Amino acid sequence: MTSPADTNGNVDDAASAGPRIFTWFSSDGARVEQARIAPVDSELRVRGRLVEAGTSERPAFTLTYDVVVDDDGQAREIVLESERAEDSRSLTLRYDGGGSWLATTAEGETERIGSPGTTDVLIAGSMAFFSLAVRANGLHRAPDEVSRSALSVDAYDLTVSDTPMSFRSDDAMVHGITGEAATSAHVDAEGFVLDVPGFTERR
């Protein structure tokens, strides 16, 4: 982790640099993710794509996402689409501002999901969503830790579940543990992942 950023807002520090595109490559060549980070008024827009090759555990797929982040660093709308060989699925998540999420499927069915007070959304393997959780909790600014429930979205079939989330930052890295994975990442001064040693790197 770089030295904590001398800023006072989750969106302001990213907005100062203007629109950028980050690309993360996995060390085994099986996954690539690219995201465009762009300020829009007082908000941040994150639009990206995660492409994963097929493995013995699941077929190849592509996940596209469009995230609107407010000036407090909270993701308030997330639009997801997963494209597989056999079909595609879509899901929209909207934060109601009161600690609840509403999920709407492609068929127009809407339900309230997640434990009360859940604010973070994570997708295993996505460096963009890991970065958003880091930024939302200010873990890039100074050593700190946070533990609570988060929403976990499966990138392949877009199923959503509650997962315990524990994030901790020190002077070197941000360490995240969920029910699905453990990740230790170097992040830049704005909280975006630079690399996960032995797993992925940003170029």
Describe this structure in words.
With 203 residues, the protein is mostly beta strands. 8% of the residues lie in helices and 51% in strands. It has 2 helices and 15 strands. The chain has helices at residues 10-15, 127-136, and strands spanning 20-26, 31-40, 43-52, 61-69, 75-84, 88-95, 101-105, 110-113, 121-122, 144-153, 160-169, 174-178, 182-187, 193-196, 200-202. It has a 15-stranded mixed sheet with strand order 8-7-6-5-4-3-2-1-15-14-13-12-11-10-9. A hairpin with a 4-residue loop joins β7 (101-105) and β8 (110-113). The protein is globular. The two termini are 16 Å apart. Residues 2-10 have low confidence and may be disordered.
Key words describing this protein structure:
single chain; 203 residues; mainly beta; 15-stranded mixed beta sheet; 15 strands; disordered N terminus; Glycolipid-binding domain-containing protein; Glycolipid-bd_prot_put
Short summary of the structure?
8% of the residues lie in helices and 51% in strands.
